[in-house]
Amino acid sequence: MKLRGTGVAAVNYPTGMNLGGDPSQALIHATTSGTFVVSLSSTDLGQGHRTVIGQIAAEALGVAMEDVIVDTADTDTGPHDMGTFASRATHRVGNAVIAAALEVREALLDVAAEELEAARTDLEFDGQGNLMVRGAPARSLKIADIASAAQFKYGKTIAGRGAFMKPKSPVDPETGAMDPDSTEAHACTVAEVEVDTETGEVKVLSIRSAYEVGRQVNPALVKGQIVGGAWMGMSHALYETTAPYYPDPGHAPKDFSEYLMPGAHEIPQIECVVLEYPSSNGPYGVKGVGEMTANSPIPAIVNAIYHATGVRIDELPVTPELILRGLDAKRRAALVAPAADTTATAGR
Amino acid sequence: MASTIVTFELAGREVEVMVKPMTTLQAVLRYQLGFTSVKEGCRQGGCGSCTVLVDGEPMMSCLLPVEDVAGRRVTTLETITPDEGVHPIQQAFIDHTAFQCGYCTPGMIMISKALLDHDPHPTREAIVDALAGNLCRCTGYEPIVAAVEGAAQATAGKGAPR
Amino acid sequence: MSPALNVVGRSVARSDGIGHVTGRTQYTTDHVFPGMLHLKIVRSPAHHARIRHIDLSEAERVPGFVRALTYRDVPHNVYTILGLIGVEPEEEFVLAEDRLRYKGEPIVAIVAESEEAALDAVARVKLDLEELPAVFDVEEALKPGAPIVTHWGNNTFMYEGHPCRRVRFGDVEEAFARADHIVEGVYDTKPIEHAAIETTACIAVPEANGRYTVYTNSQAVYFSLDNTAIILQIPGNRLHFVGGTVGGGFGGKVDVIVEPLATLAAIKTNRPVKYAYSRSEEMQVSSTRSAWRIYVKDGVTRDGHIIARKVTSYADSGAYSRQTPYALTKHAANAAGPYAIPNVSIDAYCVYTNRVPSSAMRGFGITMASFAIEVQMDKIAELVGLDPWSIRFINAYRDGDVKPHRKVVEDATLIETMQAAAALVGHDLPAEFRTMTSAPRHAGEE
Question: Is the interface score ipTM higher than 0.90?
Answer without folding.
Answer: yes
